[in-house]
Write a structure and sequence with these properties.
Blueprint (H helix, E strand, L loop, with lengths): L4 E2 L4 E6 L5 E7 L9 H11 L16 E5 L1 E2 L2 E2 L4 E6 L20 H8 L15 H14 L4 E9 L8 H10 L6 E8 L13 H10 L4 E6 L10 H4 L3 E2 L3 E2 L7 E2 L2 E2 L4 E7 L9 E4 L5 E4 L9 H28 L1
Antiparallel strand pairs: 1-2, 2-3, 3-7, 4-7, 5-6, 8-9, 9-15, 10-15, 11-12, 13-14, 16-17
Helix pairs in contact: 1-3, 1-7, 3-7, 5-7
């Protein structure tokens, strides 16, 4: 089976390909009576949209969302919310059907699994699909109005000094290369108790959601790998009267359940796999060739990845709010 759905009580299903006529999603399980319009969703889509500057893909897509169902007179009805965005600026000619597999991309793995693939911009494997995650995340935010979610790029190409990022990106783009990035996302206002101690740990589900984002190869919650370098006396989040914590090494989660502290998530985005520099590869017949990608791509996918991270955080938290309410009232 092909898994295209995500979530428990609040469930997201996406559909569409990078160069198909449209992309879309269905958000099921949203409570009724919540004020929702396309303008609210569009605010978040515009933060992810391509063609907005030199450091993102030049593909010109308006990413204008249409609400097809699940809303009546400006309020959710409790039925599935269908959202759709038309694709206008696909250039399928940049991806010939006999193009070699692009190393680092899903080309070879898809072909090996299914016996065929859509070569146009990676098809279903393209990050174009993440626009629908952002749209769905905008809906999820309305389910958790008590929570504030903010993500930002904290490192590009191994450099934490933002003042150097433009120069690094200019150099990589001019060479036909790309850079990786680290994105940090913080959710504030999450109350105590969301999550579960065993098979629905909040941190495990956040990590799974984060790893499901295109190009993400590493996830940390709280101090993450840094915790392995601390002593137990240093890593423990000491508490005082009034349930006040003196630190947040655990990133707002303990035993799979939120503690009421800010939830801190960090993600490592690999460099964009589609580059103009020749990379040794093979074609579908197994012949050794050099792969060169001519399409329009981000020099650093992590820049537009930040809104996607926020969306996945919102979807997981909204789902767990509903799960908590269902069990504990």
């Amino acid at each position: 089976m092909s898994v295209n759905s995500f979530g428990h009580l609040m469930r997201l299903t996406t559909w569409g390909e990078s160069h198909g006529p449209a992309i879309g999603c269905v958000v099921d399980g949203c409570p009724p009576g919540i004020a929702l319009d396309a303008e609210h969703i569009q605010r978040f889509l515009d933060l992810r949209r391509p063609g907005t500057g030199k450091n993102v893909s030049p593909r010109q897509e308006l990413d204008q969302v249409r609400i097809l169902s699940g809303v009546y007179e400006g309020r959710t009805t409790g039925t599935p919310i269908a959202l759709m965005i038309d694709n206008f600026d696909a250039r399928s000619g940049d991806y010939p059907a006999d193009a070699p597999y692009r190393p680092g991309h899903a080309d070879y793995a898809y072909d090996a699994k299914y016996g065929l693939r859509d070569p146009r911009g990676g098809g279903r494997a393209s990050a174009r699909e993440t626009a629908m995650r952002v749209a769905a995340g905008a809906v999820a935010r309305l389910v958790i109005p008590e929570v504030t979610i903010e993500a930002r790029v904290v490192e590009i190409g191994g450099e934490q000094d933002a003042g150097r990022w433009d120069a690094l990106l200019d150099e990589a783009r001019g060479a036909g290369d790309s850079l990786g990035a680290i994105v940090e996302c913080v959710a504030s206002g999450v109350p105590v108790g969301w999550g579960a101690p065993i098979y629905a740990k909040l941190d495990a589900e956040l990590a799974a959601a984060a790893m499901g984002i295109n190009a993400v190869k590493g996830v940390e919650i709280g101090d993450g790998f840094g915790a392995a370098r601390l002593k137990g006396s240093e890593n423990a989040d000491a508490m005082r009267a009034g349930a006040r914590f003196e630190s947040n090494h655990g990133g707002g989660i303990a035993g799979g359940i939120s503690t009421g502290q800010p939830i801190v998530l960090r993600l490592a985005f690999k460099p964009t796999s589609s580059i103009r520099i020749p990379v040794p590869s093979i074609d579908a017949a197994g012949n050794e060739v050099d792969a060169v990608t001519k399409g329009r791509h981000d020099p650093c996918v992590g820049i537009r990845g930040a809104p996607v991270v926020e969306a996945m955080m919102a979807l997981v938290l909204a789902d767990h709010k509903l799960l908590h309410r269902g069990q504990c009232g």
